Amino acid sequence: MSHSMPVAPREADLNPDRFHFRVARRFLDAYFSNIHHIQPLFEEEVFLARCEDLWFNRPGKQPLSFVALYYATLSLGSLVMTFENPEIYGADRFTWSRKLFNDALAVVIRLGTATDAEMVQCFYMMSKICQHELNPHVAYLYSGQAARTSLAIGINRSPISLDAADPRASTAASKTWWAVYCLDIQTSFALGRPDSLGPDQYHTQYLPTATSGASISSPHVLQIVPCMVGLSRIMRKVALDLYTQPCEMEQQLHRAKALDAQLEHWLEQVPSHLRSEHQSGSDLCLKPRRLASYTKKQSVVLRLRYLNLRMVIHAVFMIDAKTARSEEAAFLRECQCRCIQSAEGAIDLMYSTFCTDDYFQTWWYNSTYTLFAVSILLAVVFRQLARTQQALKNLFAHIDRAIVVLEAMDDCLVARNAAAIIKRTLARARKVPQPALVAQQSSSSQDADLNGALRPPVNAEHQTESDNVDILLQSHAMDGDDLGENVGDLDWLSTYPFDDTQQALFWTEWAHEIDTLGT
């Protein structure tokens, strides 16, 4: 299954301080109590027992690939740890994470073309680190390496004979393969690039199952795995059917309808305790805190990814319905409504979770979900699709809320810069005329004049923010020259996904805009 692996150097060749014993357990605890629950990869006790070989001067018992995995896991744990103080042992989370990542990378380079399960898991961890650092291109490279190494050692397939000694038959192999499967689809989907997995017919590996009798009243952490795999498969179909294969509007609508139905069916199959809408203050129960903690983490992530995928399915139709045929216009508006509702729902979910859970504010990848949701709402404004004043107020309110979410992650430079970009964009968005609202106001004005009704004078001292928006919309309604300036440097925002270009354009241009702001 794997090449002969070199073991870690003995004590004479390796300084024990290199394993960072003083901080290691804190970073590992942060990982296992936090992000581990979203895609369970290890048995915690087994992993910690292997770490003890390194800590207590027994490194020769572990292959060198495990040392690389160890450092990578510490790096991710540092990145998602909620520090009580800005620094731990003289360095902040980013410094520790980068140092540990470089330690892992040094071992990987030393190993060369080694292939075993630990290397797969190490590449997986390195991809997750880059994903949370908001470096999607490098995350894509490492997830591809994890996938290719998995295929090379064959853990994507269950063994033909029931041989307990075959590593492919282990629960560890199953958990590792499906974690890599989900991550590689997610990273490739975010960039609009092909994944490294090949057809699903190749993958006969069983889904990992709970080791004890799990039920709704006693859920197991592994119950999230089938949910993640099912969502990843729909994600793959969305990328291929809507954004890779060009087709006419009628066929696009048909595909979107089918994909939306599949997504709703997936949601119905999610265990009830993993649906975030069932987690409310009125449903309090006296369960162990650890169980409630990871269940909530899993339910929030599943709901957030569901909303994000629903946005992607319908975002391709964020165009003026008046340009479509009459039989298509109604469904176009329905798709737009679903897309907007999902964007607002994603922002509301993140905001409410941020209010109650500090750990969620260290998951920097939330910035991508936030920015995508905001891009949907800003596109509605810039494409002049708002139809009622209340709808426009809701759009602006949710964009404001998204800015609050990003500002809560102020430890992350990218999140801070993204918030600055959105603030600047929002100021311009408030000046964009909305023809549908102007026509609506004009019609109301004519009706009032016909009835002899008089409008009350505007009292500047008592104007609300929404009143100011109304005045801005009216004062700029006929100023066509302003619109080009309003859109200006937001071409990157309106290009994807509101035409048939691939997702790579959105992320590439977004990263370029972030880099430009930071220089």
TrEMBL record:
One of the GO biological process terms: positive regulation of transcription from RNA polymerase II promoter by galactose
Xylanolytic transcriptional activator regulatory domain boundaries: 139-214
Stretches the record annotates as Disordered: 438-465
Pfam families reported in the protein's UniProt record: Fungal_trans
An example molecular function term from Gene Ontology annotations: RNA polymerase II cis-regulatory region sequence-specific DNA binding
InterPro entries: Fungal_SecMet_Regulators, XnlR_reg_dom
GO CC annotations on file: nucleus
Keywords: Membrane, Nucleus, Transcription, Transcription regulation, Transmembrane, Transmembrane helix
Taxonomy, superkingdom: Eukaryota
Residues annotated as transmembrane: 363-382
SMART domains found in the cross-reference section: Fungal_trans (SM00906)
PANTHER family: REGULATORY PROTEIN GAL4 (PTHR47424), ZN(II)2CYS6 TRANSCRIPTION FACTOR (EUROFUNG) (PTHR47424:SF15)
The protein's name in its UniProt record: Xylanolytic transcriptional activator regulatory domain-containing protein
Annotated source species: Coniosporium apollinis (strain CBS 100218)
